[in-house]
Each structure stands twice: as C-alpha cells, then as structure tokens.
Amino acid sequence: MDGDPPRSDTAPVSRRRYLRERRAREEAESLLDQKSRELFVANAALREQAATLEDQVRARTAELTRATAAAERANAAKTAFLAMISHEIRTPLNGVLGMAEALNDTGLELAQKDMLDVMTASGQALLSIVNDILDLTKIEAEQMEIEEIAFNLHELLEGVCRLHALKAEEKGLSFERSFEFGSDRRVVSDPTRMRQVISNLVSNAVKFTLRGSVRLEARVLSSAEACARLEVRVSDTGPGVPADKRDRLFQPFSQTDASITRRHGGTGLGLWIARRICALMAGDLVFDSPPDGGAVFVASFRLVAADAPETTGLLGPREAEAVLRARPWRVLAAEDNRTNRLVLHHLLKPYPLELTMVGNGAEAVAEGRGGGFDLMLMDVNMPVMGGLEAVALIRAHEAETGRARCPVIALTANAMTHQVEEYLRRGIDGHVAKPVKREVLVQRMADLLRAGGAAG
Amino acid sequence: MKGMVFTELLSMAEHALGEAAVDDILDGLALDNDGAYSAVGNYSCGELMRIVSAISDHTAIPVPELQRRFGQWVHGRFVEGYPAFFADKPNALAMLDAIENEVHVEVRKLYPDAELPTFETEWHGMRALTMTYRSDRPLVPFCHGMIEACVAHFRQPAEITVTEIGDDHARAARFHVQLTG
Questions:
Q1: ipTM rounded to 2 decimals
Q2: Residues 6 or more apart from A364 whose CB is under 8 A from it?
Q3: Which of A108, A189, A353, A398 is the most buried (most CB within 10 A)?
Q4: Measured between CB atoms, does B39 come within 8 Å of chain A?
C-alpha cells in the first residue's frame, strides 16, 4: 500500500468510474435535498415554538405583575389592619389600666392590692405587645418618625437603669452602670425611641440572666461639637446566644428558641424594632459574643449637641403633684369615649380640681367661650366637632375678646411626630399619649398650669 | 457506517494502488450500490469489511495491518479537517482523553444518528493513560493506527501496549499509552 501509485492525472476516466462517481453524486444530492426539507420543516416548527413561548412569557409576566400587585395590596391591607386593630385594642386597654391605677387609690386590702398588681402588670404586658405591633406596622409602612428634642442624656440613661435595677435586684443580680460623660450632658436626639431601644436591651439582659450581673456602659464616641455618636453597651452573664442562632436574632417574629416564647413570652419583635430604630437614628445595633460567655449588645445613635443648656427644667413628680394640689384649678376635659372620661375622672380624683367633662368639640367650644378655665384637656378625634377645630374656635374667640389664652393639652392616640408638630402649630400647647398615665398627665398639666399661673 | 469512512478508504487505496486497481476490486465484489459511495451517505459496515478484505487479498497485506494503516491515514485527515481539536492539547494523552467527551460530543451534534465507539480513559499520573475501546465493529487495529498517528502528531515518543478484551475479537481492547520522551 505504500508503493508508487500507478495513476496519472491526465489519463481518461473509465466509463465504470464515471458511472460510479455520478451515482455517488446523485445519492449525495438526494440526501442533501432531503436534509434541506427536514431543515426547513424544523426551522418552521422552531419559529412557531419561539412565538408560542414568547406569548407564554408575556402572559406569565402579566400574571406575575398582577400577582405581585395583589400581594403588595394584601400586605399593605394587612399592615393597615394590624395598625387599626392595635389602635382599637389600646382604647379599652386605656380603660383597664387607667381604672386599675385609679383603683389603687381606693384603700385596698393587701390581698386586693396584690391582685391589682397582677392586673396592672398583665395590662402593661399587653400594652407593650400592642406597642410592638404598632411599631412594626409603622416601620413596614415607612412611617416611623424620629424626633429631634434636646434632653439630658445622663438623666435618660439613669431613668432606664432605675427602671430595671429593681427587677435585677429581685433576681439577685448585680446591676452596674458606667457613663463616660458628665451628668449635665445635653444632646439632641429622640429620647423616646432611644429609651425604647436601651430599655429593650436591659430588659432582655435582666430577663435571661439567672445569676451574675447586668452591666450598662455608655460613652459618647466622637466629641466633635456638631455631631457625635452615643454607644451603649449592655452586657450580661446569661446563657448568651448559640452561634447557629445569631443570624435569627434580628429577624422579625423570630426568637432563637421556641421555648423562649413559652418561658419568657414576648412577640419576638423587640430586637428587630430596636435595630430598625437605631438605623433610623443613623446608628446600628449589633450582637457581640464575649469569649467568657454571656451576651453583649451594642447600640449606637447619632447625637447632635444641644445648643443651649436647659432653662426651664421640667418639674419633678412631687413638685408636679404640689402644683395640682395648690388650688382648685378649673379644668375642662373634652372626650367622647365614656371609658376614657371615667379614666380621666379617676386619674384626676386625688386633686382638688374643678373638672368639667364634655363629650365633643362643639360642647367644649360652648363651655370654653364662657371662660374661666385654667386648662383644657382635648381629645383630638371626636364626633360632631374634633378637638383641633374646637381649639381654633376657642383661640379665635380669645383673640376677639382679648381674654387670656387658656392652655390646651391634646390627648392623642398613637400620634405621629408630624401630627404633634401640626397640633402645636394649631393652638395646642402640649400632648399626652393614650393610654394616659397619671404621672405623665400630671406632669404636663403642672408644667402648663405653673407657666399660666406665673403669667397670670 | 458513515460514507466518509468508505470514501477515505478508497482514497487511500487509490493513492497506493491506482484508480484502475480499486475499480477492479470494487467490480469484483458485487456491492449493493456497485461501490458508489458519497461522504454524506450511510452504508453497511459489512461492505467496508469486504472491501478491506479484498484490498488485503490484492496487496497481500494482512487485514489487521491494513486497518492500522487506514487508521493512520484517517487520523491525518482529521488533523487536516479539524485542527481546532488538536490546537489546545499539550500532548497525545490529553487528545486521547478528549475523544469521548469533546470530539464525540461535536460529532453527535452534526450526526445525531452516528453509531460511535466508546473510549473510557484512566490516567496513571501525568504521563500514562489507559484507554478502553469498545465498539460494535471489529476495528481494534484501526483504532491502534489512529493512536499511533496521534502520538506521532504530537512528536513525543510513547509506548503503546494493546490488550484485546472480551469474547469478540477486535471489538474491544485496552490501550496503555506511556510517554517515554
């Protein structure tokens, strides 16, 4: 097979070779033709399939868009429903807690007092759950608002510590605190939300620690005048958080262990809300696991240094009580809800006030125009005429007659920051959130009465 | 079997024996289509074996040897026609290793009905490879020739050991290829 090929390119091709080549060519052409047809048919089928697929994709995309919109609507509706129902729960809860507080003043026997304590604690627990859910709905609807108020940082932290130190002592835990700033440090931030976050962390630490200590350390990190950062470190000697459960710490509705819900209760929303609040306040909330056990949570918040020192210090609880007892102040209260009227009545019963109760804004205007009141408590949402409208008419009347301006406290349920600002612009002097707490109400009333008394 | 194998076999025979001799061989065989093969057609493997046998008779070269030379010839045609397969391989072993999972994948895209042999490979370090060939056709010597040509193509000497396996002779074999240079 490797020898010289006995062939010549110029030699004529034999007939048999010609026929053989021709036959092979014809066969190849026939095959080509057949393949061409097959290709044509396959191409047509592919085009049709592509068109069908595109139609299906379009239809599915439209379905998906509709489904997404429906899911978003349903979710928004669920959030709105949660907010509404929580709000609805707070009104009767206001009645329960208010009446419990009032009942406490009626000279109860020791056993009755114990029962009342359980009732109050249960009511407070329910209120904190409802508040958690309201916060959740606000955060989900991106309506959580952060206030900027000047306050004393030391006092705020000391207040949180006082609140939980007692509980810690009862459990035999030592409660330590250290603040790396002076007791007169004033800052601008949202004290309510800051208190909520720190209180949540300290409360958790006390709740989960069986022996040892709970420690709160606070320091202001950057001392730049305009802007600083507060870091609050809450550490405990409790069981800590297992490594595999740490990623669930800040998930909503998630507790690291189902048994926690059984043993300690809670909604599992606290840390999620706390972290969101920290983020809204340009800070963060992180978990740190120290090598020697226990848990450490570090919350940070942006602070703005307060411009001027406090000039008109708020009254202490005793001073406030003293102001209310000083004379028979004439107070007009407008509140449409009968339960809330009863609560107000009982909360203010210990003081020698001349309390006039009306059921809507129109009645408040009628009474208010008569004059002679030192202070008004005004529910915002009332039938016939709302509180804001009533105040506007009263202010107009005061301006016409040249009568002294009567301070008004709005009683608000779940008011948003921007709403409160709006109230203050529209002739309201202060607000107290429902469920009304006696201490807060008395303080606010005393502040305004003292200012009014001083002026008059 | 793909027509290309027939046209290449006849092409090799014509190259060595001349057109007239090949025509004589084909005329003497009473083939189904009188020996008219196109590269794109499909023909029975039995006809190929008959042609190989007739060429062997004509040249007095034993059939296995003829198959081996044909394997070498076809390898040369592959290098000419599909240089891309060879370009990115560092040596013959890598090329042999790629037949099953690279070359045959491409062949099946073009010819979904192709009946291909299988080539299982097993590496022994970086310089030795065992390739197990299994086919429905008795073409072990043809495969041997292809492997020899592949080794020659990469210009790196290697020792090739063939062990026929299975009951059917020449349908399955284990080729051990050890680089020596």
A1: 0.73
A2: A332, A334, A358, A376, A378, A385, A387, A390, A394
A3: A189
A4: yes
